[in-house]
Amino acid sequence: MITNQVLLLLMLAILWPSTALPFTPGNIGNLFGMAESDGRILQRSKRGWMWNQFFLLEEYTGNDHQYVGKLHSNMDKGDGNVKYVLTGDGAGTLFLIDEKSGDIHATKRLDREEKAMYTLHAKVLDRNTNAELEPDTEFNIKIHDINDNAPKFAKDIYFANVPEMSEVGTSVVTVTATDADDQTYGNSAKLVYSILQGQPYFSVDSENGTIKTALPGMDREVKENYQVVIQAKDMAGQMGGLSGTTTVSITLSDVNDSPPRFANHSFRVTAVESTEIGGAIGRIKADDPDVGRNAEMEYSIVGGHDIFNIITDQTTQEGVIIIKKALDYESKRDYEFRVEVKNTYLDARFIHGLQFKDYATVKVTVEDVDEPPVFTRNPYIIEVHEDTAAGSFVGVVSARDPDADNKPVKYATRDSEKCLEPKQCQSVRTKCQISSLPLHNKFILLGNWVLAICEILKLINDLLNKDFLTN
Asked: How wide is the angle at C-alpha 21 spanned by C-alphas 17 and 24, nearest 5°?
């Protein structure tokens, strides 16, 4: 104990100026910038004022002027001959000094967030001569903070995205609040973040406001959007602290974690036999709950096909079945093939254990169309002597209906624009008649007709033009 006292005396001896005031408890306070008794009186040494900084709490709510502190000079003998003068920030308006006692008061409530410190100057004058008894000396009045400002976020609502199926602890977004209170004094601006809504899916770092995923396997196809409410509370989160909140709208972005699937694994398509090559005869569609690029699909016929092909409609993601070769109802009426669908783009993280393709069977039925009769030969060439009489037998033509072999076929002649001579055609047209010969044929109505010489020429011309008429 004695050793400690000796060391303290040695330190004071080194620091104490040779011209200082007497070594008394009051003067020790002046040396270290400490106030006397109530902490507000400032004394001077022979070499000038020994100032301590004044502190004043903001937002004073009293009815009278708020006491700041007291200036005092050793030149003041208490006889009223000393006058204290105050100049600088707010002197005479915000701050008033009693020129006799040196007491300083604030005239109104002060807000640290508007101005945190005021710099003023003090003088000691002889009241009778206004002679300066002390040199002009500067001192500060610092406004002490109280917790009068709640934390505020820059936005009322934030928007963020995070990929679905993210690992626990994946950072989503950081939201921070600001507090206008003094960051260097107390805990008025010490913020702690917490999550009020959004658990158990998300968590927040209590120190920096970073939101992270907290639940594994969050699936966008199950739930896509989340509303998370974050609170920032000052006073280090203690009871009585002020708080502010914000909402964070979090959307799970899509990844390709779902393969395409056919709702039905069998499709029936009908096609008329007259469909042009390259024409579409039907559409099939698989479902993929993913979106955008992750839902893009491509269709193909397993093993290929001679008659049909399938392409992908990039807009609707449907498989469009098209014709590669002409259909013929009379040759083949039914087809069947398998179609494969798969994603265009794959995510290596999710292909293990999942088959990112599916299959379906397509059955095509060809429908008949009414086709015109077809002659067995085209053209017919018949030689006739030039002097053959009208009405003479010159030859036989035969036709069949490709839709049904037992369907009746009727024959007729038609005037032609191409005749040997107009007069002859006109004469033949009015005189020649079609006559039938009851020749043996297995078809009752599909007879073989005998044509007069001029009519044969016209029929040949009609066949060349593929123009057929029936009676």
From this structure: 110
Q: Check pLDDT > 60 for residue 426.
A: no
Number of other residues whose CB lies within 10 A of the CB of residue 175: 22
Please give the backbone phi and psi of residue 53, each rounded to the nearest 5 degrees, phi first: -75, 135
For residues 295 and 452, the model is more confident at 295
pTM higher than 0.70, yes or no?
no
User: Strands 44-45, 48-49: parallel, antiparallel or unpaired by DSSP?
Assistant: antiparallel
Domains and CATH numbers, the chain: 2-144 (2.60.40.60), 152-253 (2.60.40.60), 266-367 (2.60.40.60), 374-465 (no CATH)
